[in-house]
Amino acid sequence: MKIVNTVIHIAIVHGGGALLLAMFAVLPLFTGCGDKAIGADGTVIATYEWEGKPHHITLEEMQQEISELPEYKQRQYQDKEGLETYMLLMAESRLILSLARDQKLNEDPEILKKVQDYLHELMVKRVTVQEVDDKLALTEDDYLRYYEAHKEDYVRPAQVRLLCITLTDGARADEVFAEIKAGRDIAEVAQELSDRGELVGPGANPASPGDTDYIGRGAFPEGTELFIDAAFAADIGELHDGVIGVAVGSQKYFMMFRKDEARDAYQKPFEEEDVRKNVVRKVEREKRNALLKEWVAQLRARAEVKTYTDRIPEAEPEAEAEPSEPEAEETEPVSPEEAPAESQPE
Predict the structure, then answer these.
(1) CATH code that applies to domain 158-264
(2) What pLDDT was estimated at residue 322?
(3) Backbone φ, ψ for residue 258 (5° rounding)
(4) Taking Cα atoms as reference points, which of 202, 134, 128, 122 lies closest to residue 162?
């Protein structure tokens, strides 16, 4: 493979940081055009000297590093220009690392603690994969059984689709409704109001003024029940006879609509892609949590863990209680890999 013909001073074009690093490497990084330096470790594509000691980077090292990157990053270094860029990045990073070693940062207690914490984290994750994730054994029957036991979670409720105009001014709403009642098309009026920026709430999407898309009974907040009930009770193609006033908190809204479509509640089958994905995810999570709980219990029994809760001091009362966080819809037990690194066993 042809060796790239350049020198470290090309780093100037990559910005101030690269220029500063180039000052540490005044020797040429690369061989001349057409030359190759084949060493025991591979094809040398860059050399530099640090504190009197020579170093080199090989083509094979660069290719190996690139192959370990995420795929989207690998694509940045596929052509010659990308490889030149990565070659400079390798040289720069090694220069920075050499400087860090000279400053004995490899002996810094804070850094060493973080390294140890990360090592513990990797170890816990790896053993958890071996003892839990690799032992997950689920079949299609497991997924189907879950679906049958939770079919109500996969029902699309009854829905309606409206051509709706919502305003915040009651008098203005009465004027608009009078125009529609007199024969103006509600869709045309909705477009005009949207262009003026008057539409709010359902039907306010400027890409499709007035169209609410399909909405169910639980689509809107408390205070809009009168509007929702009227929408479901109306006939298809019917303009509701009058403006409906609702209040959400302290804000009042005035709504008029034509019912365009309706569809009944629908039981989604297991075969639907989104249903199956959801079922698989939930079953695998439940099974993993059960295996994790069982495994951790076995570890505690094996080590004869004893706890002394009476030795833990009570929390100091807060001067002013903070508002509590809302509970998540679904909670999972804390797995060993989520425990703080400091508390993990040596």
Answers:
(1) 3.10.50.40
(2) 56
(3) -120, 130
(4) 202
